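Your task:
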Amino acid sequence: MLNALFEFLDPTHVRFAGRRLLYVAGCNYLGLAWHSTVRRALVRAAKDSMLQPGASRATTGEQTCYRQFEKRLARVFSVEDTAYVTSGYLAPIAVCQSLREGITHVLLDDHAHPCVADGVVLTGKKVSRFPHADPNALRAAVRCLPRNARPLVACDGTYGIRGGVTPLDAYLDALPRRGYLLVDDAHGAGTVGPRGRGIVKLFGLRDLRIIQTISLAKAFGVSGGAVLGSLERVGAIREKAAGFIGTTSPLRPVIAALEASLRVFQTQPKLVARLQSNATLLNQLLPKRAEIIGDPRTPVVGVFPTSRVQAEALRTALHRAKIFPPFIRYLTGPGTGFFRFAVSALHTPAEIRLLARTIAASLENS
C-alpha cells in the first residue's frame, strides 16, 4: 500500500481501485484543505496580484501581507512573534541555524522527527540522544553537562504516526535556566489543547525558553510552517537562519489562503471541538491491545501488526468495510510498515464506530 495512487472525492472519501472508500488517514484534521472560504481566497489572490516577488524576504522580497499574517498567527497562538517559512520541515532547521551562538550542547529526544534531528546537526554542537518521553533520562543527561552549559533540548510535541504527546512540562522542568526547549508541534497545532492551540497550551506553559515550530499544511490545510516564540528568538530567525534568509518569498496566494484558514479556525471553534470529540470516541471504542497505540487527546492512532498475516487480514477487512487501508512505511516507523489512522472534524460518529469495529474484529480474529 506504500505510495498507493488514489483520487480524493471529498474530505472523507477517496476513489481507489475503482471503489469509493472512507478515508481515515492523512493530516487534513479540520477539513480546511477543502474549505470553500480558504480555496476562494487562494484563487482570488492568484487573479489579483503577482504570485511572488521573486526575491528573499531578507533582500527585496518582503511584503506587507507576510508580516500581517505572522502577526495574526502570533495572536492566535498567544506568542510574542512568529516567522513563516516555506515548509514545516524547514521550521526546526531554521531555529537550529539561528541558535549556533546561543547554545553549548544539544539533547535530542530519540524519537524526534527527522526535521528536528537534521536541524540540531546544523548547530555545530555535540548532540546527545536520550530515551523518548523519559524526563528522568533527560534530567540525568542535564546533570552530566558543565555547570555553565546552555543546552538545547529538542523534541516533537504531538506524535504524528501514533497517538500521544511529549511530557513537555517535565522536559521544561529539567531544562537549565539558560537553556532552550525546541518543540516541533506539526501535528498538534490546530488539533490538541484548548481550542486547538497546540501542546504548549495543552500543558498551560508560558516560558520564553520554549521555541515552538508548527506546520501550516496539516490542520490548517494550506502550506508552509512557522516558528513561534519570543521577539528575541524569532528575530534571530530573520537575522541568522539561512533557511529564512536564503529562501525565496512565499507565494502570495498561499498567504491569502492561510489568512482565510486562520479566520475559519478562529471563528468556527466547533471544528476543533468535533475533531477532539472524534479522537476521544475512536480511542474509547478501540480495544486495549499491544498492536494499537493511541491517545484520546490526539487524532492519530497507530496499528502495528505483529506479522504479515495480521497486516494482510486487517487490510482485507478494511477493504470489505469500504475503508481505505492506510498501510505505510515512514522514516520513524517500523520498516515492516504499519497502519496510520487519522480522524478529522468531518468524520461522523457512525464512521468512527465502523472503523473501530473493523479494526477490533480483524485483530481479534487474526
User: Anything to note?
Assistant: The mean pLDDT is 96. Residues 349-365 form the longest helix (17 residues).
